[in-house]
Amino acid sequence: MLSILIKDYLLDLKMKGSSLHTVENYGFHLDKFAHFLEQNEYTYSDLTAKQAKLFRNYLVDQGFQSRTVNSILAAVKSFYDFLMEEEAIEGNPIVSSRLRVKEADILPEFMTMEELQEFNNWLNTRPPFHVALGFRLMLATGLRVSEAAALTPQDVVALGNGGYILRVQHGKGDKERYAPVLDAQVARELVRFIEGCPERLPIFRISDRTFKWWAQICRIETGIPFHSHRCRHTVGTQLLQKGIPIGGLRTYRYLYNP
Prior knowledge:
disordered C terminus; 5% strand; three-stranded antiparallel sheet; 55% helix; DNA polymerase, domain 1
């Protein structure tokens, strides 16, 4: 019964417009919850606040970081909200304010100038052009890897001043936003690359998992502790070093003119 309800919930998320990445993550999180219930012979419909706390403690004992524990708890809470909407249960035993684990302050993992030089050298010699362009675009916009993989030619918007912005249709929280392309050369390469590409198909024709695979190859071949999200951290750090608030990414006045 629980597995059927989880499938119904994930379908509901999809119907509401949640990204595939979000749906998959929530599925993984709820699998952990279902395993915990089965292991301890608890039932989802009779879960108590004490048992919910035991689930939180179980996640911590499994070695999950605080942020991951809180994400899993948020997914389970959302699942119970769905069950209440479906009138399958009367109350939600997951009270986030009481179960939330304190998260340590995490410094941004930006790349140093030396790492950036080594990374660019690797991009020039190793991955195919479209893969290299995808990573360069992440470094020029701060896009998440899933957002870059989902871009279509229709999402590349030219501005009157000669600059370009990218429409991110399904960002974090499934929110739409626009991201400026902060590197003129990357903007020119992107515009040339999408010439003749079908408007509604992804620009790079590869998944975020493929980008992550190439990130792993980069780590192996260069020794740089690289992962795709370091591009986003690097963009944010560079803006702050220039005195530009992170909120400046939402404006157009910091665009470089190609």
